[in-house]
Amino acid sequence: MKLADPTALFDHAHVRMELLRQRAFNLRWASVEEGVIPLTAADPDFPCAPEIAEAIARYASDRYLSYAPAEGLLFFREAMAEFYTARRDVKLQAAGVMACDSAAFGIMAVCKAFLNAGDEAIVFNPVDFLFKHCVESCNATPVLWDMPLMPDESPDFDQLKDMISERTKLICLCNPLNPTGKVFTRDELKQLAAIADQHNLIILSDEIWSDIVFEPSRYVSIASLPEAEARTVVVTGFSKSYGLAGLRAGAVFSVNEKLVEKVLNASDQRSTVHGCNVLAQVAATAALTQAQPWLSGFIEHLHEMRSLTVAGLNATPGIQCAAPQGCYVAFANIEATNMNAEQLCQKWLSEAAVAVVPGLPRWFGSRAEGHIRISFATSKTIMEEALDRIKNCMHS
Ligand SMILES: Cc1ncc(COP(=O)(O)O)c(C=O)c1O
């Protein structure tokens, strides 16, 4: 499909509310009471690119849905290698790519591969709960590194150096950083790489948000740095950029193929207990090879939504919000409301019928306290309505 205006697909007219109410779970439309606007889990309100649906339908119409190789289908792995070589400057070969069922499982598989009971892993604070969860599932200890709450500030690398012990094996990098929206600069990544090198640590780089970056910020993958490529394992997925969360599609990759071999061995995919289903790989391949115009339109729409959301929040009494550099979530400070995040979220849910994610330690770590997270991957109409309701309820 050729579109004159790539943002046209992100008009409110394309939001299929009746389908979202049936199909969008995980704190979203199908999980909330009718009338509630859920700006909760980061999952777009728009249907996926038509090219992806067509690719799934074409593949399924042959009616052969046999086992895939444990490491994933070759066409998917080749598409990943081409994409990351061309767009992220990572010297990736298909042999260094492994398909897996979701980025969440990719994080778990990397932790299983590189952590033993009693080991330590550096985990950001705040960050998505998955890192802590996966490290602890390996009976290892997450050691929390404070992240700046303002996206344009740098973390304290001396603090990181002091936190590393003989038991530290892994640094979990989340770039762009959910929930603060920070995009790491080349210089920051170089500092991180130097510390990892000095202590012989594996870097787990979660890059699921790497397409969602707002100019003038630019994305740099730590796997593209010559000094880091041999010790970096990247985890990514297709839920955020392409709206394919329900397909549970993901990938683990590295320039250092031996690291991916270790992850595959640890993943239980060789036993078929885990594995990425073939339709997810077909969809992910179509996303990488055919859905880039759709993605450009989505990012352009998100640019507008970011301004709208941040301005609306800052016009609300007691709320302060910096513009994220990446991710389609706004991470707002609510301390001036004199309520904690749970109280404020409860007030907005009951009085404004708007659901947002409270910055609770169990979701993001202790540094998220006093904050809420709001997904803006929706239409202007829905966000304007939500912001109006929130403002009115804070004025009343
Ligand atoms: C940083 C990060 N990693 C991983 C995930 C999980 O992605 P997936 O749906 O592919 O499991 C998320 C989802 O919010 C995320 O924000």
Q: What does the secondary structure layout of this molecule look like, with pairings?
A:
Blueprint: H1 17-23, E1 37-38, H2 50-61, H3 74-88, E2 97-100, H4 103-114, E3 120-125, H5 130-137, E4 141-146, H6 157-163, E5 168-174, H7 186-198, E6 202-206, E7 232-237, H8 239-242, E8 250-253, H9 257-267, H10 278-290, H11 292-314, E9 320-321, E10 329-333, H12 341-352, E11 354-355, E12 357-358, H13 361-364, E13 371-375, H14 380-395
Parallel strand pairs: 1-11, 3-4, 3-5, 5-6, 6-7
Antiparallel strand pairs: 2-8, 7-8, 9-10, 10-13, 12-13
Index terms:
single chain; 396 residues; alpha/beta; Aspartate Aminotransferase, domain 1; Aspartate Aminotransferase, domain 2; 2 domains; 7-stranded mixed sheet; 4-stranded antiparallel sheet; 13 strands; 40% helix; binds pyridoxal-5'-phosphate
CATH architectural type of the largest domain = 3-Layer(aba) Sandwich
CA-atom Rg in angstroms = 21 Å
Mean pLDDT: 97
Tally of discrete structural domains:
2
Unreliable runs: none
In the sheet with the most strands, the strands line up as 2-8-7-6-5-3-4
CATH top level assignment of the largest domain: Alpha Beta
Q: What is the name of the CATH topology of the largest domain? A: Aspartate Aminotransferase, domain 2
**Order of H and E elements:** HEHHEHEHEHEHEEHEHHHEEHEEHEH
- Largest sheet descriptor: 7 strands, mixed
In total, the number of strands is 13
